[in-house]
Amino acid sequence: MTMLTQEQVQTIIQANPNATTFKVPEGVTRICSEAFNGCSSLTSIELPKGLKSIGLLAFECCSGLTSIELPEGLESIEEGAFDRCSGLTSIEIPESVTIIGYSVFQYCSGLKSIELPNGLESIRNGAFAYCSGLQSIVIREGVTSIGNRAFRDCSGLKSIVIPDSVTSIGHDAFKGCSVLESIEWPKGLKIIGDEAFYGCSVLESIELPEGLEGIGRGAFRGCRRLISVVIPDSVTNIGIFAFRGLSQLSQIIAPEHLHEQLKREYPDKEVMTRVQYHSALVAKIELYRQVALDDGEKQKLAETVEHLSPGTKASLMALEIPEGQTFSNLSTEALVQCFGDEPASLLPLLGIESKEVALGYSTEVGSVIASHLTVREKILLDATAKGEVLTQIRPNNTVKTSRVISLGQSLEASNDTPDLSDRKPEEQRVDEKPSSSASSPRGHK
After folding, report:
1. Is 235 in a helix, a strand, or coil?
2. Model pTM greater than 0.85?
3. How many other CB atoms sit within 10 Å of the CB of residue 303?
């Protein structure tokens, strides 16, 4: 027997009405269309090693199926094969699979994770639509397109990395992914389809890749938290209402040739070129530093600003500092807002000494900074924390500020490996025991 049909499956199940498992006989190379359709009592199905293809709707509505192991050598999974298998929590697709049909895992609401094979070239229409439990997915390099509705209403999906090989994202592809927080955009992306990210309501900033040519109608409509949108010069066409319903958005950074269109469509938004936007950021930082910069310093500042993440740029642009204050005397909350997801190298840009912040600000701010420092930076900052300074900033232990090492970022928890070959004897870590010549607490006599 090389093919397993629906009639054969029904005959076997009728002979074993209480069975919850099913073993497909050896020698079967194809499971025919609808073979197990509606077999909701089955919890596991064992497939043979020689299986080559799974037919149309083969396991549709097998709602009791919790696991299935797809054998190596399987080549194709046809349209809707696992549609509405709501009990399925995970599945591994073997490297031999080159075709995954339309809507294969549609409505698999229990599916939490899936790893796609290396040889896959496209994620077809509706492949994972309405998989509300899906939290993560790894898309391999080599996939060139993400089809229409591919991840529609995957309401548990928080982040996704799209490989650089992807050139198109179809319409409704991520529509309704309401907790999607971040997207890593592919460098080769050319087209974003209509309503592709409609209703991705927690996205806060997007900087689309150079080389993108078209943005479809309503592509980012309803992304209520978006505060920053950066459109590259390569975009020649933006569909109507692409950025409608973005209540938090105040600025759109766009190429010159799209200015008039965007101003007409979004009269309540400030439309700026990238050069204007970066110049405004540099001017704002210079103003709040309250220090005159020479031409070289301004150029260096401009280069640094250009490479900040979209989120940090947006936070800096939105930040309002009371008259007469500078970055270095901001409140805890405002300073944390400034950092966004940038490393501690942002501190000099703001005119703030790392040592000053590490020792003089609250644990919340110190932790933000510490989380981005290298091990060597932590050690050097730790070495500067003399007891005299700590006494001044920690009277009676009422303020829990301390050396960077002690701000929840121990060396043991770090992934960095410190090079201590040139470390001076006095650069002793906080948690090292003092030598016999220094039995008293550090900095106290």
Report:
1. coil
2. no
3. 11
